[in-house]
TrEMBL record:
UniProt protein name: Uncharacterized protein
Domain of life: Bacteria
Keyword vocabulary terms for this entry: Membrane, Signal, Transmembrane, Transmembrane helix
Signal peptide: 1-30
Source species taxonomy: Bacteria, Bacillati, Actinomycetota, Actinomycetes, Micromonosporales
Transmembrane segments: 54-77
């Protein structure tokens, strides 16, 4: 049971760090430069001239990179702990 608690604590710390490192600065940037007005105007003038494939593709790649970085960090941390014992 102690191993489960250790892994849960590590996973929570990694996810909290990822949220603080990625979401909070993006939210602060979006709130500070008038982007809300631009988004409202874009929603009002929604046109279907282009497909949205590029947005989802780039967003998916970004998500994959973040997940890969979190997994890599967890693997490196666990390897480092095994070597000390």
């Amino acid at each position: 049971m102690a191993d489960v608690v250790k892994w849960w604590t590590r996973l929570t710390a990694v996810l909290t760090g990822a949220v603080l490192a990625l979401v909070v600065p993006a939210h602060a940037w979006a709130a500070s430069n008038g982007l809300d007005d631009v988004m409202i105007e874009a929603a009002k003038r929604r046109t279907r001239s282009r497909g949205g494939f590029g947005f989802f593709f780039v967003g998916g790649l970004c998500c994959l990179f973040v997940v890969a970085a979190v997994i890599l960090a967890m693997v490196l941390i666990s390897r480092n702990r095994k070597r000390r014992r």
